[in-house]
Amino acid sequence: MVDNLKCDSKYITGGEEFMASPRPTFWRALIFSRHPAHVRKQGEFCAEDYVGLYHKDAESYLCYDPAVSDKPMFMISTRVSFDARKKTSWLWKIEKDTLVSAGDPIVCKSSSFYRIKHVATKKYLAKTEDGGLKLIQGYNTPLSLWSFKSLTKAMSVADRASGTIHEEGGEVVKSNTLVYVRGFNGGWLTHKVRVQQKGPGADQARLADAGLMSFDQPSERDAIRFLPVRPGDIRAVTEMRERAEVPYILNPKP
To answer: Is residue 233 part of a domain?
Structure first.
């Protein structure tokens, strides 16, 4: 218990104890948020939302299936309506890099960073040291931080001057917003043309590699659209995951 409650964990930034005895034995849970709390507008995406990340030009979802590959890929699909069933491998959660910003709108701004968590495996999308992509268990690394850039902002200075883009706070990501996904210290998420050919199954022909490319200005063909996910899809995934974890906890592998 002491190990779990300590304040010097590498995952706690700026944690301190106040009015603590040499051997603290009592803890008080606090629920807190920024004031004033953000009131979500229709169509907005906020930190802690579950989404599908859809490559509009390639008509593909960013996906991760460890049974097929240890790297994230894109899978072709035209299921883009809200009521359409989404595959488990397509579901992601957008987390803000600071706890107190949970629930704030997701904005396209180079200084606003987020983590992209795969719902089924609870792993985080991250860059590799050589500029590739991978999924990792721990999130406390700059390699797992991502920012977003609006396609509109990247292409149209005139729109920005007319007030379409709010430079001071960044454009809020909405259901019809197209964005680029950028790594913490460079590299843009891209869809690669080469198709995966490993393993059996009808889905193999629909898979293509996801990668990172270093451009000053990414191609408009690599714009990503955030798609909302039905609550029922998320409940199904979390219930299955919990059922799968119970046998593992009782009979862990050596």
So the answer is: yes
225 vs 227: CA distance, rounded Å: 6
pLDDT in tens, 178-195: 999 999 888 899 988 655
Kindly report whether the global pTM for this prediction surpasses the value 0.85: no
- Between strands 133-136 and 207-213, the pairing is unpaired
Instruction: Fill in the amino acid letter for 61.
Output: Y
215: CATH: 2.80.10.50
118-171 tens-digit pLDDT: 999 999 999 988 888 999 998 889 999 999 998 875 555 444 444 444 444 578
Structural domain count of the chain: 1
Q: Within a domain: residue 211?
A: yes
The Cα 130–Cα 138 span in angstroms is 19
Domain-embedded: residue 68:
yes
Q: For residue 151, give both structure tokens.
A: 């396609």
Copy the structure tokens of residue 23.
Answer: 């051997």
Q: Confidence class of residue 38 from pLDDT cuts 50, 70 and 90? A: low
- Residue at 17 is within a domain: no
Query: For residue 202, how many C-alpha atoms fall within 13 Å in the half-sphere facing its CB?
Result: 1
Distance CA(121)–CA(138), nearest Å, equals 12
Q: What are phi and psi of 238, to 5 degrees?
A: -65, -35
Q: Which domain holds residue 192?
A: 44-249
- Residue 142: per-residue pLDDT: 93
- Which DSSP helix (H) or strand (E) runs through 189? strand 188-195
> Which segments of 19-152 are extended strands (E)?
50-55, 60-63, 73-76, 91-96, 107-108, 114-118, 123-127, 133-136, 146-150
